[in-house]
Amino acid sequence: MKVSSIYNCTEVINIVGDDSVVFNNIIFDSRKVAENDLFVAVKGYSVDGHQYISKAIALGCSVVICEQMPDEEYKNITFVLVKDSSIALGQIASAYYGNPSSELKIIGVTGTNGKTTIATLLYQLFAHLGYESGLLGTVANYIGSKKLSSTHTTPDPVTLNALLRDMVDAGCEFCFMEVSSHAIHQNRIAGVNFKGGVFTNITHDHLDYHKTFSAYIAAKKAFFDSLPKNAFAITNADDKNGMIMMQNCKAQVKTYSIRAMADFKAKIIESMIEGMQLQINNKELWTPFVGKFNAQNLLAVYGVALSLNQEEDEVLLAISKLNAVDGRFQTIRSNNGITAVVDYAHTPDALINVVETINQIRNTEQYLITVVGAGGDRDATKRPEMAKAAVSGSDKVVLTSDNPRSEDPQAIINDMMKGVDGADGLRVLSIADRKEAIKTACILAKPGDIILVAGKGHEDYQEINGVKYPFDDREIIKEIFELI
Predict the structure, then answer these.
(1) What is the rounded CA–CA span in Å between residue 300 and residue 295?
(2) Digit-coded pLDDT (tens) for 246-259
(3) Strand partners, 365
(4) Are the C-beta atoms of residues 134 and 142 closer than 8 Å to each other?
(5) Residue 274 in 3-state DSSP?
(6) In 3D, which of 167, 173, 170, 110 has the Cα closest to residue 138?
């Protein structure tokens, strides 16, 4: 790709040097630069790429994208001065891969909770409807039926556009992707053309990064502000910020709700641990999913499908065939009738939703024992709220470690205990070893009881002091239940 072609894909202030130079790869990590690469100096959250321009040049890059010129002069290097290098990175990456998002119908799903479930179920649904699709998300990426590992909820711009190009080449027509607030704020989706967007909800999370809740809302809202007129935006009318997200949205706005009038409306007819009978826009179906939050998730899936001109009866039939997403209200039953529910709930609101769902379907003789922790090196203000959410709806709570990362697990638990009031403390145990905590919950449970193991869901590791150790809540439970 020639430097001169950059004029056509991003706003260029000035080019200093030879604009006929052809560069090889687009690199934003100076450690990965090779001969004749283009290096993009991005001002990140903790590191400014401009500090590594000299290193990138020493490693052989021939072109540098930057927001300010370095003090030192370099010969035979072409500098492209831009207003925002993070936006330029996304737009150049898109052009480099032939603008693959213009050849796909891409639906972005954003919100605090539900992103993974909705994106994954859309991918499943459109497979049932006979389409080749792609999926980009927290648990895994898919190109058609080919599964790829995922390291971020939303990939970096270069990886993202490379994956989109692979989807196009594989014959995919649709791509369903999770869009994180970090990705929006960091402009990882710059240059991507979206056909539609979904807002799930917004609750307490990621304040370690965004600092304030209003900044977190603004990051999510920016995604909908950027949607074009020919796109659609579907928002959760049950969330108090659902319509705020749409205030400056140019796309066609549609709503979904289980409580109020909306374009897409659902009612739970019957609910049990095995699933629920739903009425969606006056048509009934059975689904193996449970809870109000899953009714909302399925409504969003239904709304997207209809907005993509799919036939309603076929969509409802396909919805009834969808399978649970890894680590999302995933149930494991012991031989003596104890039910364990593994869920990724790692925010106060998500935990409240799961606990409330279990309480709606259990009888008075069934105890709920909740095992939960909170991640280290992340938003510490939600720790007491996590404990409060668990205690408020459970008969017994075992506070434990999640991914402590560089922090002391017991110190995290101590932070959580600040959310436990007075006599409620008598129902709370503190066991820092997560396996022992799960084992204790299983010992305390009697036949018929329900154990909720929350926080890690699909994850198959536990990160302690920078090292990821194999650890899967589901496998631990199966081992304790003697199912493996």
Answers:
(1) 9
(2) 999 999 999 999 99
(3) none
(4) yes
(5) coil
(6) 110
